[in-house]
User: Fold Bifunctional protein FolD from Ancylobacter amanitiformis.
Amino acid sequence: MIETRLIDGKAFAETLRARIASDVTAFHAATGVKPGLAVVLVGEDPASSVYVRNKGRQTLEAGMASFEHKLPAETSQDEVLALIATLNADSSVHGILVQLPLPGHIDAQAVLATIDPAKDVDGFHVVNAGRLAVGLEALVPCTPLGCVMLLKDTLGSLAGLEAVVVGRSNIVGKPLAQLLLREDCTVTIAHSRTRDLPGVCRRADILIGAVGRPEMIRGDWIKPGATVIDVGINRITGADGKNRLVGDVAFEEAQGIAGAITPVPGGVGPMTIACLLANTLTAARRLVG
Ligand SMILES: NC(=O)c1ccc[n+]([C@@H]2O[C@H](COP(=O)([O-])OP(=O)(O)OC[C@H]3O[C@@H](n4cnc5c(N)ncnc54)[C@H](OP(=O)(O)O)[C@@H]3O)[C@@H](O)[C@H]2O)c1
Assistant:
């Protein structure tokens, strides 16, 4: 029986944040500039408010400047676009993040398209998506970046490995597939119309769940020894009536089959904000020169 190793994203993210904080200190000493991250939140979605608070706290802890713009839910699209234009022009801001989802009357694509690609630390602008696709230097979406860091830490070189990404969103699945291709994996992207999903998953040396369906990927879909990265975050009510978070992979079933697996919570989740800070420092270095 295989001994399944736990991939500790929480510990990895803490080490990464400490390294970023020391790089920020050195950057500040060399240039006199503090990297600055502006976060725009429209409305009062409770989950988004928690994320924004955590981002603000961790930005300050990394020694960066944090600018929070909390706008009421009824803010017009033109007002949001005007704020982004101001942030684009502000030399103390090196990264701009618009917290999604936006209220229904605002066109998220129009808002994302207005962000200066050089400050697009979420990597959602079509210029950054296109640069990633053609192999140019780009700001890369944070969650996929975090997944690849964990994979390289676990496996070393990923070259030649069969990777299956389940999910094809612009935020996770597609950019993650691009990054794995850049690491010389042989990449399959699966989705809701894939035939024989269990069979496709069983081919994977690297199996990634980015679906948003609790424990959909069963233990017997996993090739023995495969490395499993679980991006899904799903809140379910257990038999005891208590709420808990589970991933897209049946974690207990994966024990003894997977070579290594990320837990939920404590796997991919903590990597996202750490990579946001890494992207902000990268953007500041490029903007300040
Ligand atoms: N920080 C983090 O850790 C982090 C960050 C982002 C997202 N997430 C989590 O990751 C999950 C995915 O997020 P997302 O934004 O990528 O979601 P999304 O935009 O809803 O995309 C889900 C993808 O899963 C596919 N899918 C749905 N049902 C399927 C099925 N039965 N079989 C195979 N594929 C199926 C969909 O296929 P179609 O395209 O065919 O519809 C789609 O491509 C969510 O649980 C989210 O909460 C976590």
